Amino acid sequence: MAMRWRFGYLASWLVLACGAAGAAETGPVSETGVAPIPAWIDLSGDPELAVDGGVLQPVGHVAGSRLPAIAECCPEPPWAHRSGLFGELLLLRARDTEVAYALPVNGNVPEGAVGLLDGEFDLGFKAGITRALDESRSLSFAYTGFFSDSSDRVAVDPARSLVKLLVHPNELNAAANVLEAGGESEIDFQTADLAYRFLVLSNHCTAANLSIGARYGRLDQELAVEYSGAGLTETVTSDVEFNGLGLRLGADLEHHGRHGLFCYGKTGVSFLAGEFQADYLHSSNVDPVRVSTSWDAGRILSVLDLEVGAGWQCSPSWRLSAGYTISNWFGAVKTDEWIHRVRNDDLRDMSDNLTFDGFVARAEYRF
User: Fold this and answer.
1) How confident is the model at residue 230 (pLDDT cuts 50, 70, 90)?
2) What is residue 204's predicted lDDT score, i.e. its pLDDT?
3) Which of 50, 77, 247, 306 is the most exposed place for a label (fewest CB within 10 A)?
4) Would you kindly state where each structural domain of the chain is located, as residue ranges?
């Protein structure tokens, strides 16, 4: 499944590149060919700048001033809202989602490494578009996709055996250990965000914005484990899925320094009203249904996103940045909890936290 979406990453970046190639930008200039002074710049008390007829001039343009220091000025602050396209490359890992599926034992004593399905860092992406309403307000739409998978296999010599940790203890063959086991798991999420963002505080170098909008979120967790021994092959599969829609609130802060460098921080919280659906199936090569159950329930998930980083505004049109990001899904049902509850015949009040964290690199073309 994850490999299928690698093509999605490439397609998203191609769309952004094509859009950027078709856009162009020109800046306002005065009749003298020098940019007019933008309203956001306060020139009072700055001896290095000279004003002549409402136009910012190089030092030395006005009689009696010193040698040239600055030839022109940006027509708007670096934090101004601009229309544009953006793309992000994500390197994330799902935390606290491991599932132990087999325990090596010698008699009744554990001996050897536990069979464990636990994902590593994997790639995701985010792509979107922004439409500026003016210098301090904008609308945006963004899609995020993260698709991860993991696999593992364990085998022991005949002197030992493997305890089947995902099988219901009352199943007829539950006590029969095996010599080999292996499996695969996937954890994916997708979000689509629509936001209205507006400036609340600013000065020459720093700006703070708030945003309000909506988010659709989808969370998928799949697992399949196979146990083999004594001519019998047993398979345990699990599928936990959530779909929800709700309100999203956000805030961001950025500070610009010299040479186009800047740092930023942003956060957002979403309240997704939706439904969890979970399925568990234990089958074998001689019996297609040994244990089977399903569960669904309505939930409101709270999703908290945090990101901090730094970047470089290399031109009026291009911005590059990189940072650390974390996303916590509060109130989720995780695969290990779901299977544990099935094995213990207790499906009440299932709730846990699912966290993704890692690194993000962003490129933005503004026009």
Assistant:
1) confident
2) 87
3) 247
4) 2-23+30-35+74-366
Amino acid at site 79:
W
Q: At CA 140, angle to CA 137 and CA 143, rounded to 5?
A: 160
Q: Kindly report the pTM of this predicted structure.
A: 0.79
DSSP state of 67: S
- 3 state SS of 285: coil
Region 200-216: what's the mean pLDDT? 96
Average pLDDT score over the chain: 85
Selecting from 2.40.128.100, 3.30.40.10, 3.30.70.100, 3.10.100.10, what CATH number does the domain 2-23+30-35+74-366 have?
2.40.128.100
101 CB neighbour count, 10 Å cutoff: 28
CA 170 – CA 167 distance, rounded (Å): 9
Please tell me the distance from the alpha carbon of residue 13 to that of residue 320, in angstroms, as a whole number.
14
